Amino acid sequence: MTTTPEDNGPPPEVSEADIAAMHDDPRFVELKRTLFRFTVPVLLSALAWYLVYVLLSAYARDFMGIVLFGNINLGLILGLSQFVVTFYVTWAYNRFTARKFDTQSAELRDDIMNGGAK
């Protein structure tokens, strides 16, 4: 059985001072840094692979037209690999947040909600 916010009543009030204190909290700064260190390299890698695919499609038509088997050529395989990369990025992000980010952010949120940043 899952609980919804309606089951527990309204969320506790958080003041502007609590929010400002959270932004200065070293745990919050580290949390943002951790997320940044994961997302930026993964994003840049995925975009680089997409750019390589587009450039190959535009300027290396003979290379992309290499027939691997039947009617399947290298361009089709590399195009389909974009889906693989997208699914991998999604899986990696979900795994990363479940293992590192969610636990730390929940602890910080609970501290803020239960009396301010420490």
Question: What's the arrangement of secondary structure elements?
Answer:
Blueprint: H1 5-8, H2 16-24, H3 26-59, H4 61-64, E1 67-69, E2 72-73, H5 74-113
Antiparallel strand pairs: 1-2
Helix pairs in contact: 3-5
**Mean model confidence by pLDDT:** 85
Compute the separation of the termini in Å. Answer: 33 Å
Low-confidence runs (pLDDT<50, min 5 residues)? none
Which percent range describes the beta-strand content? under 5%
Tally the helices: what do you get? 5
Broad structural category: mainly alpha
Please write the string of helix (H) and strand (E) elements: HHHHEEH
Strand order of the largest sheet: 1-2
Percentage of residues in helical conformation: over 70%
Write down the overall geometry. elongated
Number of strands: 2
Rounded Rg: 23 Å
Largest sheet: 2 strands, antiparallel
What do these coordinates show?
The protein is mainly alpha-helical. It is built from five helices and two strands, in the order H-H-H-H-E-E-H. It has a two-stranded antiparallel sheet with strand order 1-2. Helix 3 packs antiparallel against helix 5. The two termini are 33 Å apart.
